[in-house]
What we know:
It contains seven helices and 16 strands. Helix 1 packs antiparallel against helix 2 and helix 5 packs antiparallel against helix 6. The protein has four domains: 64 residues, no CATH class; 73 residues, no CATH class; 102 residues, PH-domain like, CATH 2.30.29; 68 residues. The strands form four sheets. It has a five-stranded antiparallel sheet. With 336 residues, the protein is an alpha+beta fold.
Amino acid sequence: xxxxxxxxxxxxxxxxxxxxxxxxxxxxxxxxxxxxxxxxxxxxxxxxxxxxxxxxxxxxxxxxxxxxxxxxxxxxxxxxxxxxxxxxxxxxxxxxxxxxxxxxxxxxxxxxxxxxxxxxxxxxxxxxxxxxxxxxxxxxxxxxxxxxxxxxxxxxxxxxxxxxxxxxxxxxxxxxxxxxxxxxxxxxxxxxxxxxxxxxxxxxxxxxxxxxxxxxxxxxxxxxxxxxxxxxxxxxxxxxxxxxxxxxxxxxxxxxxxxxxxxxxxxxxxxxxxxxxxxxxxxxxxxxxxxxxxxxxxxxxxxxxxxxxxxxxxxxxxxxxxxxxxxxxxxxxxxx
Length: 336
């Protein structure tokens, strides 16, 4: 029997109060420090010290209150999901939607600063009565948001009323898949070779620096390349390790059966799993994360621009849904 538990009558999703308090504390301390250092510069010089201190204290307290009120009231979104309704509570406003006539989808926006990932905004899109309502969910973690969408939009395939038709549909889907990660390994090898070359160049210049007369020669300026070569070698070595880790996580062969998954040489019976998270097929990098009771999990990359899956990843998701139709809630989408 599957260990996946049925969802309770009502589930409440909200940002964790401890995370909210920690964020409010950090912001209030930062703003108060800014007030302490910068506000006195804008106060009249004729104002005595005690009055200046009172003004700074009042402004700091006001900003602190505003931050805490905003964190625990204005930005504290609560979503309550029952079998029939979805209740969304925001500052001074509670909206209730009937699930049978309302559509829900996710919106995830990744923010980057100078090419570096700086944050992620998650939002719930509500389609009701011809309206499209965007509800931003600040502070919702990836796991909380995934659980919310798994409840609102379960991807588990409904149990077919006609077993013969279900068997026919399943027979039309593949059961065996191959994953080719050779391009990923090739890039890892290229990074490793580049790292070795850069380390060798840095070592050569380092040894040359100890040669007699090198400091007075016209090549002495080349010693400046030593730190750049070393740093470049470290960077490419880290990149090679990351690419090799991704390549190792990709199983060469995958089998989907009525009893479970087989990834490479490892079997994963469905009745021993608590959840299977699969990346939506539209994502560039598609992964599967397998969770077992007790919090143990393993993640495998199945497809990406450098990893090819045959047949297509979409067929794999459809086959997995078909084989787990008798276990509602076992398979969910991992919205990264």
